[in-house]
Amino acid sequence: MTTDTKTASQEYIEWNVDLSAPVSIKGGSLPFSDTPMVGVKRMMFERRGDEIARRATSCVRYAPGSSFKPHSHPGGEEYIVLEGTFSDQNGDFTKGWYVRNPVGSTHAPFTKEGCEIFVKLSQVPSSEPDYFYLNTNEADWTSVSELHKTLPLWNSDLEETSLNQLKAGYQSTEETFDKVVEYFVLSGSATINGTQYEHHSWMRFPANTPVTIATNSGAVIYRKIGAGEVRV
After folding, report:
1. Where are the domains positioned within the chain?
2. How far apart are CA 205 and CA 2, in angstroms?
3. 30-135 and 142-226: same fold?
4. Alpha carbon distances (Å) from 196 to 16, 26, 46, 219, 221
5. pLDDT by residue (tens digit) across 48-81?
6. Per-block mean pLDDT, blocks of 10 residues, the chain (232 long)
7. Does domain 142-226 have CATH number 2.60.120.10?
8. What 3 state SS string does the chain have?
9. What's the pLDDT at 6?
10. Which residues does residue 55 pair with via DSSP β-bridges, in sequence order?
11. In the CATH scheme, what architecture does the domain 30-135 have?
12. pLDDT tens, 193-208?
């Protein structure tokens, strides 16, 4: 059980929500801040809104034995478990699970051992009515090349989301996309557009930005092409 009793409700902010502006946040450069619940902290990459976000992308850490009060997600929720086991009434999700909770869904998350998730709020369109669960550890990855495997997570008219496993020595060709594109480094390190990024790094590029990726040691990278549902 956590001994940290600090809590703080989120005031209204607009942080990195201009999709026409590039954003680059290196892992470890932002602090984890308190939430309204004891033992739950978040590192915000983008956010519009107060405690009820109109749009948010962040990492959330739960100390062992911590929980979050029952709450709804008016704009849905998408997350990947980075460490530990994240639980709610829908099950226990260990490292590597990818989950999408639909618009209006409600849950009361908790953890016994502690956990961390990469989570996106209020970006799921109302046209997606169902829950979606994928254990990426047991899924069938596709080999793009000897040094690159990819796993689609979710595809729709609004987004193309995948995990990309890159082995040491990988070097991409230059790619451009007609939609905004974002990356999150789950593990390892990678050089993206000439800058080195360690795990927990997040970046977003406007549409039609040339992107190159390389890694000397290997990396696993989340990529989302498209912004999902944009709520203002």
Report:
1. 30-135, 142-226
2. 37
3. yes
4. 21, 8, 21, 12, 13
5. 999 999 999 999 999 999 998 899 999 999 999 9
6. 78 96 97 94 96 96 94 96 96 98 96 98 95 97 98 97 98 98 98 98 98 98 98 92
7. yes
8. CCCCCCCCCCCCEEECCCCCCCEEECCCCCCCEECCCCCEEEEEEEEEECCCEEEEEEEEEECCCCECCCEEECCCEEEEEEEEEEEECCEEEECCEEEEECCCEEECCECCCCEEEEEEECCCCCCCCCCEEEECCCCCCEEEECCEEEEEEEECCCCEEEEEEECCCCECCCECCCCCEEEEEEEEEEEECCEEEECCCEEEECCCCCECEECCCCEEEEEEECCCCCCC
9. 87
10. 48
11. Sandwich (2.60)
12. 999 999 999 999 999 9
**Structure tokens given for 41:** 């902290």
One-letter amino acid identity for 219?
A: A
